[in-house]
Amino acid sequence: MKEKGLFKSLSLFETGLSAAEWAWRILSFLVIGGSGISTALVAKANSLIGQLGPIYWISVGLATSLIVSFFIYLIKLSSLKQSEADLNRILSSPRDSINPLSDNFRDTIIPVEDLRLPVIQLHENKHFRRCSFVGPAAIAIIGGNYVNTGFLECGDIIALPEDAMLTGIVVLKNCTVEDCKFIKTSIFTDQNTARGFAQVPNSSVKGIS
């Protein structure tokens, strides 16, 4: 039952992202194609250009499509630069005072190294809300619920063998993580959790047996 809960929470978030991205792509295609076709039809109806033949008014439509594509590219580039600026702002923000023994974390920038405990690096059944886990570092995720959680520059998710033993790495076990971000953090999981991640669109999971 816990495994299904993990799959559901992850799938809801990632499917939303995928749907938004597909909606943008479809809208861009319709705008580019529609503007080109509309311009070509207008050019065809023009008494001067229409008389020159299909190659001319089709060329006008293609030129319009290229211009619209260029402006859409500029919009996407601007969005990417803004995302990079937001990421740099988060990484350069002053560190919050982290008490790794707390059970609840809210609205906090968490350098992963600050979650280390004196003996066993295990955080179990804890609640994180609107937090940013910042690396470079590594975290092992064992079960739990991850809702509206993003992974930025984290690379592949690595599924560990059943008999693997880790030491010196922060572990989140059966934690609830809501509206959080993992930034430049390598993610390791057990096999069951990895299968949940693998069901998320656009995820990259390696090592599932």
Sum this structure up briefly.
The protein has 209 residues and is α/β, with parallel strands linked by helices. The chain has helices at 2-45, 47-50, 54-92, 191-198; strands at 104-106, 109-111, 122-124, 127-129, 132-142, 145-147, 150-152, 157-159, 170-173, 176-178, 181-189, 205-206. Helices cover 45% and strands 24% of the residues.
Write a structural description.
- With 209 residues, this protein is an alpha/beta fold.
- Helix content is 45%, strand content 24%.
- The protein has four helices and twelve strands; from the N terminus they run αααβββββββββββαβ.
- It has helices at 2-45, 47-50, 54-92, 191-198; strands at residues 104-106, 109-111, 122-124, 127-129, 132-142, 145-147, 150-152, 157-159, 170-173, 176-178, 181-189, 205-206.
- Strands 2, 3, 5, 7, 8, 9, 11 and 12 form an eight-stranded parallel β-sheet that branches.
- Helix 1 (2-45) runs antiparallel to helix 3 (54-92) and helix 1 (2-45) runs parallel beside helix 4.
- It is elongated, with a radius of gyration of 24 Å.
- Residues 1-17 have low confidence and may be disordered.
Number of helices: 4
Structural class: alpha/beta
Strand content: 15-25%
The SSE order reads: HHHEEEEEEEEEEEHE
What's the number of extended β-strand segments? 12
Uncertain parts: 1-17
Give the CA-based shape: elongated
The average pLDDT value, as a whole number, equals: 75
Helical amount among residues, as a percent range? 40-55%
What is the rounded distance between the termini?
21 Å
- Largest β sheet strand count, sense and barrel closure: 8 strands, parallel
Radius of gyration: 24 Å
